[in-house]
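Exercise 7. Given the encoded structure of a 490-residue chain, write a plausible sequence.
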């Protein structure tokens, strides 16, 4: 939620949003001082060495904590009497992703220079330790300002035009921390209607449609479909869709798509406007003749297929539809995969992400979800894991000692169980401090149609009897990659 604020406050917050291992020591003092101005103090040099407010002029706007490269350079010049050339060398040593590890050669000069001018040695050492964090992370204030501007504009668009914001993010993939499934889920939670790809309405990119009252609606495009080629859209569908396709035969006859393209569209359930669900459209595609008939049987080839009377196809369970959606689009508008496993996890006493957010500080908790991101900023060794389920997301913190014992589960799980304690800050920010892990990816096999138990007497109950949980599950080959890979940064 946007709040009126000074732009410089946003700049500073952007500067400290993802601190490095040593710069992290600057974050909490800054936040604490900004909240309690009475804690701000600026040590003074000896009266004979300079004015008592020299540090206030350098660090006043950041509550006495150096956050930007320029401040580190000014601190070295003012407090330790670096020459401009030496300060520039210090800047080069602080340059991110270059010269990492060279900043240490300035330690003695800076500390001894500050001590000689009357500053306490412990204070001088702390100043250098904070500046050392720039050696693997730091950036100038101008970068924070430009990024803060982008953050504010993006937040404004997301608040006032959520459909357009989600559409733009999807059309810019791959990018950012979140997969398309989470972008779509967040948009729907903010009141945006999202519509499935369809042969009569979709374009290549995701687009905006409008209801009668002018409310924008997000329509997913063919580019969201796995393995669907852009030239199939531009050369076939776009050129022949002057009038809406009214039947399956009119679409195949006018678009003249190759058989493989038709199978992909059917598997992606793109024929809903023709009143055909996924199974029906796949059946109709399978009945079509091959793109190139075998010469031996060329004389037997006919364009028009004779009418057939077929038995009613069994309805696909919702879980199977959801799996197919994830296979073809890496997202589903029908349900979240965790929704179908909730009863099982609840029976084990495992909480949902929403329940974690409501838990009290220090409460023991177990949470399971799909892994969205894994992050390990800098060389701190701390891993941040974000889980997703049908109720929201849960952010977990994995300390180095825990990560060392559970590395395989932390780095390899697609469906992860985390056990730990809830940490709730005064501002209401909630993390799950991880202590133990379990890789529960195998539980995704339970979503297979072979494991779906329908009401007694249902046709599918006969065609697909429930299997013993210990029996091998025969799955479509794509089921092994039903989930998109997590966005990992380390």
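Solution.
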């Amino acid at each position: 939620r946007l709040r009126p604020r000074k732009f410089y406050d946003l700049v500073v917050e952007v500067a400290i949003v993802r601190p490095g291992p040593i710069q992290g020591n600057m974050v909490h003092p800054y936040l604490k001082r900004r909240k309690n101005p009475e804690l701000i103090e600026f040590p003074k040099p000896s009266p004979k060495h300079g004015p008592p407010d020299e540090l206030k002029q350098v660090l006043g706007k950041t509550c006495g904590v150096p956050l930007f490269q320029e401040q580190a350079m000014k601190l070295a010049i003012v407090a330790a009497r670096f020459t401009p050339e030496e300060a520039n060398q210090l800047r080069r040593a602080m340059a991110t992703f270059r010269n990492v590890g060279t900043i240490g050669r300035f330690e003695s000069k800076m500390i001894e220079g500050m001590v000689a001018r009357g500053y306490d040695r412990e204070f001088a050492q702390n100043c250098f330790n904070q500046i050392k964090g720039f050696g693997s992370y730091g950036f100038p204030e101008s970068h924070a300002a430009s990024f803060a501007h982008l953050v504010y504009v993006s937040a404004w668009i997301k608040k006032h035009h959520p459909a357009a914001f989600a559409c733009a993010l999807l059309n810019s993939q791959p990018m950012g921390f979140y997969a398309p499934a989470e972008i779509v889920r967040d948009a729907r939670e903010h009141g945006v209607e999202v519509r499935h790809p369809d042969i009569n309405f979709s374009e290549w990119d995701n687009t905006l449609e409008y209801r009668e009252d002018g409310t924008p609606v997000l329509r997913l495009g063919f580019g969201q479909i796995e393995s669907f080629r852009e030239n199939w859209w531009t050369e076939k569908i776009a050129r022949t869709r002057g009038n809406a396709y009214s039947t399956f035969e009119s679409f195949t006859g006018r678009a003249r798509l190759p058989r493989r393209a038709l199978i992909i569209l059917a598997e992606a359930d793109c024929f809903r406007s023709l009143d055909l669900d996924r199974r029906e459209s796949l059946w109709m595609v399978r009945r079509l003749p091959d793109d190139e008939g075998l010469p031996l049987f060329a004389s037997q080839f006919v364009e028009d297929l004779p009418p057939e009377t077929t038995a009613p196809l069994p309805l696909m369970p919702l879980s199977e539809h959801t799996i197919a959606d994830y296979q073809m689009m890496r997202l589903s508008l029908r349900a979240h995969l965790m929704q179908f496993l909730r009863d099982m996890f609840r029976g084990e006493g495992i909480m949902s992400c929403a329940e974690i957010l409501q838990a009290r500080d220090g409460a023991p908790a177990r949470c399971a979800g799909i892994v969205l991101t894994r992050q390990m900023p800098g060389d701190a060794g701390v891993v941040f894991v974000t889980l997703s389920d049908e109720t929201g997301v849960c952010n977990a913190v994995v300390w180095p000692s825990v990560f060392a014992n559970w590395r395989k589960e932390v780095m390899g799980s697609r469906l992860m169980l985390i056990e730990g304690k809830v940490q709730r800050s005064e501002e209401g920010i909630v993390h799950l401090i991880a202590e133990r892990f379990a890789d529960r990816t195998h539980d995704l096999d339970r979503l297979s149609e072979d494991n779906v138990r329908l009401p007694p007497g249902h046709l599918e109950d006969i065609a697909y009897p429930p299997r013993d949980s210990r029996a091998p599950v025969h799955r479509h080959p794509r089921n092994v990659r039903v989930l998109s890979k997590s966005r990992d940064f380390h």
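Remark. The first helix runs from residue 7 to 16. Students should compare their own answers with the one above.
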